[in-house]
Amino acid sequence: MATWAAVAARKAAELSRTSYQRSSMLVQLRGLAIGDPMRPSRWKEENFVIITLTGCGLAIYGGYKFFTRGKNDQKEEGSK
User: Fold this and answer.
1) Are 35 and 42 in contact (CB under 8 A)?
2) Is the CB of residue 34 less than 8 Å from the CB of residue 43?
3) Where are the alpha helices (DSSP H) in the chain?
């Protein structure tokens, strides 16, 4: 009987510890959240970095797709 009580107490302690870790992890994840997305003056520096890198990546990818779009059509016509 005593071993079952000890196991139950250990599991209860473990559950309380994991729920505390999950809540602290959620608090850390909320650290990058934008407070008011429609007001860039209230954004954090990390948000500007993420948006700038995303915009640069999209511009590079769009330019690549724009300038290389005709090359695939010529290969298909030559093989027929």
Assistant:
1) yes
2) yes
3) 2-29, 45-67, 71-79
Assigned token pair, 72: 């695939």
Cα gap 48→33, rounded to integer Å: 12
pLDDT digit string, tens, across residues 32-51: 666 777 888 888 888 899 99
φ, ψ of residue 35 to 5 degrees: the values are -65, -50
Q: Take residue 14 and report the two structure tokens written for it.
A: 């473990």
The SS3 call for residue 10 is helix
Q: What is the pLDDT of residues 41-80, one digit of tens each?
A: 888 888 899 999 999 999 999 999 999 986 665 555 555 5
